[in-house]
User: What shape does this take?
Amino acid sequence: MREISIFADESGDQGGHSRCYALTLVFHDQDDDVETEFAKYRSGLLARQLRDIPFHAGPLMNGHDDYESMELATRKSYFAQFFIMVQHLPVKYRTFVYKRSEMQEPDALTHRMRQDITNLLFDELSFFQSFDKVKIYYDGGQDVVATALREAVEYVLSKGSVLYRKTKSSDFMLAQVADMLCTLEVTDRKYRANELTKTDEKMFGRSKAFRNNYMKAIKRKRLA
Assistant: This one.
C-alpha cells in the first residue's frame, strides 16, 4: 500500500495583522527514506556541539524560546545545518502567498486557499491518485488552514483515502521542514517587495546572497 504524507505550515495570523499570509505544503512519499538524512543532520549538530532541539524558524531568527541567549553565529549554524538536510530530503513542496490587501472579506482567504489547493491537486491528480492513502499532518492552529485543507482534499480525492493527524511540529521533522520552507518563501517575498527586517538581513544578508544561498536550492524542491 502506497502512502503520501502532507505536512502543512502557515506564516501570518488569520486576524489580518501581518502584510501577507503564507501556506506551505510538504509532500513525502512514505516509501522514500528520510531517516538517513535525519541521522546525518543530528550527527552534524553533534560534531558542532549543538543541542538537538526542534527547529522553529521564528524563534531561531529572533533568539527566543530554545534559542534564547544564543549568539547569532550559533543560530546561523543551526539554520545552515537544517537547510543542508532539507536540500537532500526526498520531498516536494508548494507555497501559496497571499497579500492581506487583497483579502478584505472575512472568508476571502479561506476561499482563495481552498481554490489554490484544489487546483494543485487537480494539476497533479495522477500523482496523488497513485497513492492508496493520503495522510495530512497539521497542528490545527488556525481554522483557515484546517478548513481549506479538509475541503479541498475531500473534494478532489476520495474521502476514504484521506487520514488527518493533528500534531505538534516538534513531533515530526518534516513539519519542521515545512516551517523552514514557509519562512524562506515569505522572506523571499519580503526581499522582492523591499520589506525585509533587520533580523532578515542579519540572518540572510543582502538580496543577491539570499537568492544564491537559499532560493536557488529550494526551487528544485517545488512541486510542478
Q: What stands out?
A: The beta strands are 3-11, 20-29, 92-99, 133-138, 162-166.
